[in-house]
Amino acid sequence: MPGPNLVYICTRSIAKGAGAGMVSALGVETGTLIHALATAFGVAALVSAEPAALKVLTLLGAAYLLYLGIRCLAGTGPPGNSAQPVPRRLWSVYREGILVNVLNPEIMLFFLGFLPQWVSQDASGARAGTELLALAAITFTVRWS
């Protein structure tokens, strides 16, 4: 079953065209970059240390996707009203793509649980962050190749 990111990109592509699909994919990947930076700079460790915080983020992600679905069914969005200029619509699609990814529990768990396993055991502080950034760069390279 496709995850929220893929569903979002596909629905934007179908509803708004290829350009909106590409912009939504860029937004989703910007969200992935935010996860990578949060992991490298230790923010993700703070979230993983408090299970309730992860649960709240997961629930926020589900609520946001539900909100987008209701807007689509109601015919009020996501952006695309003919009265809005195209750049504004694409900016909204980009922002929504970021939010869909940042609140995606699958990506959160990947960066919180899987990626840190590959950091050297003796790495600490800046070195661990550098290794995590390198791993995130590899993740981006693989995703876009």
Describe the structure.
With 145 residues, this protein is an all-alpha fold. The chain has one domain (4-144). 78% of the residues lie in helices and 0% in strands. It has 7 helices and no strands. The protein is globular.
List the helices and strands and how they pair.
Elements: H1 4-16, H2 18-40, H3 43-49, H4 51-74, H5 86-102, H6 105-114, H7 126-144
Helix pairs in contact: 1-2, 1-5, 2-5, 2-6, 2-7, 3-6
Distance between the termini: 22 Å
Question: Gyration radius, to the nearest Å?
Answer: 17 Å
Largest beta sheet, briefly? none
Percentage of residues in strands = under 5%
Number of helices: 7
Q: Summarize model confidence as the mean pLDDT.
A: 79
What is the domain tally?
1
Question: How much helical structure, as a percent, in the residues?
Answer: over 70%
Order of helices and strands: HHHHHHH
Shape: globular
- Which class best fits the helix and strand makeup? mainly alpha
Q: How many strands?
A: 0
Low-pLDDT sequence parts: 79-84
Short description:
With 145 residues, the protein is an all-alpha fold. It is 78% helix and 0% strand.
Q: Which features does this protein show?
A:
single chain, 145 residues, mainly alpha
